[in-house]
Amino acid sequence: MKRSLLPMLFLILAACQEAPQQEVTEVVAVPPPPRALAEVLAAQPEETRARYPYRHPQETLEFFGIEPGMTVLEGLPGAGWYTKILLQFLGEDGLVVAADYPMDMWPHFAFGTEEFIAKRADWPTDFLQNMAEWSGETGAEAKTFVFGSMPDDLAGTVDVVFFPRVLHNLAYHDDKGGYLSLALNDAYMALKPGGVFGVVQHEARDAMPDDWADGGSGYLKKAFVIEQAEKAGFEFVADSDINANDKDQPTVDDVVWRLPPTLRGSRDDPEQKAAMEAIGESNRMTLKFKKPE
Asked: Please, is 115 exposed, middle or buried when counting C-beta atoms within 10 Å of its C-beta (0-12, 13-18, 19+)?
């Protein structure tokens, strides 16, 4: 009986040796490619896209050399108009750091009530939560801080610091707490050597009085901004007229907030409102600096 089982056993062993071995294939998730800036901009809500003719986000971000995967520090993000664009454009390998005014600066504003300031104290966590929602699954990481309390681990890690319409309030209230130099110092310390400091700012014409162009009306002179940036250690690289608006010709009695989108003083006056809308948003300087290598 045992002898008759041997041929069958040999057949089974031969069949097992000839059976092909199954290969184990490892499935690796491939991240989606970075979205082109034009694609990100086209996907924004209508109310955001309505301001493109005045803010020129594609030309502005390209002028400052902002690219997917970078770390970008945005000053005074407000309601997140640029933040939402940056989070999606930088992608999941990028980082957006939002920096707000110092807490002790807010009481100097006319609207700086106790209630407003109490709510503002929660800004770092509240805005960080908003950024996480805007970023979604494919957007950049997010961090927040207020000027004067920059995290130590951020120093020397930022590719571009972007200040869109940030400097006028810092300059106007500077004598009350050194806020302008504080923010510029944080910007300088955050940047990598050779990193870019990009400024978009309401621009006062050279002929306007210096005491009017002190930031209180929203406007600053280009020479003043360059002087302050160089004083902080930056090197001036280039300027651009991409955000210029020759229709904006304020007098000494005007403030920048008379124009869209604020329309201060004309919202209930159809004729005056139409006149301000015909001007459009403010005349703005666009300046590129760099941190020396």
From this structure: exposed
Helix (H, G, I), strand (E, B) or coil at 240: strand
Which residues touch 249 (CB under 8 Å, ≥6 apart)?
A: 205
Q: Please, are residues 199 and 239 in contact by the beta-carbon 8 Å criterion?
A: no
Domain locations along the chain: 34-252+283-290
Question: Do residues 281 and 51 touch, judged by C-beta distance below 8 A?
Answer: yes
Terminal Cα distance for the chain, rounded: 89
Tell me: the pLDDT tens digits for 20-54? 555 555 655 556 678 899 999 999 999 999 999 99
**CATH architecture of the region 34-252+283-290:** 3-Layer(aba) Sandwich (3.40)
Residues 133-176: pLDDT tens digits? 999 999 999 999 999 999 999 999 999 999 999 999 999 999 99
**Chain centre to alpha carbon of residue 223:** 24
Q: In sequence order, what DSSP letters do the residues of 153-187 get, joined into one string?
A: GGTT-EEEEEEES-HHHHHHTGGGT-HHHHHHHHH
pTM to 2 decimal places: 0.89
